[in-house]
Amino acid sequence: MSPEKLEKLKQDIVFEEKLRGHTLTFHSTWGLFNPKRVDEGSRLLIDRVEVAADATCLDIGCGYGPIGLVLARLAPKGVVHMVDKDFVAVDYARKNAALNRLSNCQIYLSNGFGQVPTLRFDTIVSNLPAKAGNEMLYIIVTEARERLQKGGQLYVVTISGLKDYIKRNFREIFGNYKKVKQGKTYTVSLAVRE
Q1: Of 71, 101, 156, 176, which residue is least crowded by CB atoms under 10 Å?
Q2: What is the 3-state secondary structure (H, E, C) of the chain?
Q3: CA-to-CA distance for 12 and 28, rounded, in angstroms?
Q4: For 34-92, how does the pLDDT look when each residue is reduced to its tens digit (9 = 90+)?
């Protein structure tokens, strides 16, 4: 590989996406999930999530920020906490929040809820990776319920092969489950803290 090609590969990947009526610019890099465009699962979740203008939200596993930044646009009087266990993802999410002039975001390192302040959230979202394993998915869903306000919502998007697992867990932990949208590959699921 030529030194020029190597240098080009090391530069930020920059792209724009129109999400929920807002055009956002993203910087990303190789090694992050879907670095060249917002993935189909995240887009399905973004298109279906409902938040109040003053909501307190949490995006678990925010990556470079597409879901959390859309929440920040949809909840301009609220605050969006965005967490990821990957410091590179957190750096890019911060860069993208600043680039898109979104000051209502708090972005920091956390493996699941480990470093999340003791707050009650109105909405928690996550594009849950199948590779996280059933144990981590169970931990996230259980802790999400504990951190939601009464009436608070947990939205997750997973590969459709996990929809029955999510349905069982939501019913066990929350006592309810709603399939919001099933696409060809991904399913958006919702649970409400009653």
Answers
A1: 101
A2: CCHHHHHHHHCCEEEEEEECCEEEEEEECCCCCCCCCCCHHHHHHHHHCCCCCCCEEEEECCCCCHHHHHHHHHCCCCEEEEEECCHHHHHHHHHHHHHCCCCCEEEEECCCCCCCCCCCEEEEEEECCHHHCHHHHHHHHHHHHHHEEEEEEEEEEEEHHHHHHHHHHHHHHCCCCEEEEECCCEEEEEEECC
A3: 6
A4: 999 999 999 999 999 999 999 999 999 999 999 999 999 999 999 999 999 999 999 99
Specify the length of the chain in residues.
194
Q: Which residues lie across from 190 on neighbouring strands?
A: 155, 178
Nearest to 158 by CA among 77, 80, 74, 60: 60
**Which residue carries 């209502």 as its tokens?**
104
Its pTM stands at 0.95
Average pLDDT, the chain: 95
What is the token pair recorded at 104? Answer: 């209502």
Interatomic CA distance for residues 79 and 116, integer angstroms? 13
Neighbour count for residue 39 (Cβ, 10 Å): 18
CB atoms closer than 10 angstroms to residue 29? 16
